[in-house]
Design goal:
By secondary structure, the chain is mainly α.
């Protein structure tokens, strides 16, 4: 026979945890002043741990099913992206970055060139309206040039193919 402290030392538990297990009915209570039966406490604690392990194992298949579901979804997403790439419905990020960098550099160059291009022409004009028209025409000319450039040819072809597919779908 032993007290809670001795049972705790035997099971590598604290006295407080042994007390909690006794109050939860997991470990048998001591008999009078004689104390607790160490062998009965050991067996009860082992049974308690086995039961907890079984309950934990019941949760594992759910985790496995969730992981399988997540894997299947990721595989489906991957295949969907592959199909989009093969059907030219995706644009590569590098192409977009290169195109926009070129587009912005071209835009900057054309807009910065406007003052040099119109300065000598402005000196010969007599009215404010003529100067405004000249500058407006130069800005529009630069913007029209920029509007005709931009996307690489393969991207433009892909977008036109997708647009054709969309139009065909709308007609049916």
């Amino acid at each position: 026979m032993a007290n809670q402290q001795e049972v705790g030392e035997h099971l590598s538990l604290t006295k407080q945890y042994v007390s909690n297990l006794v109050s939860q009915g997991i470990l048998p209570k001591g008999i009078g002043r004689g104390g607790m039966d160490v062998d009965a406490c050991r067996k009860a604690y082992i049974d308690y741990l086995r039961q907890r392990a079984r309950l934990h194992l019941k949760d594992v298949p759910n985790d496995i099913n969730e992981e399988k579901l997540r894997l299947t979804k990721n595989q489906a997403d991957h295949k969907e992206i592959e199909v989009a790439v093969l059907s030219n419905k995706l644009v590569h990020a590098e192409d977009v970055i290169d195109t926009w960098q070129n587009f912005i550099a071209n835009c900057r160059s054309k807009l910065l060139n406007i003052p040099a291009k119109v300065t000598h022409q402005v000196l010969g004009l007599k009215s404010y309206a003529e100067v405004e028209d000249l500058i407006t025409n130069e800005v529009h000319e630069a913007l029209n040039e920029l509007a005709n450039t931009g996307l690489p040819e393969n991207t433009t072809d892909n977008l036109e193919a997708v647009d054709t597919d969309i139009q065909a779908t709308k007609e049916t």
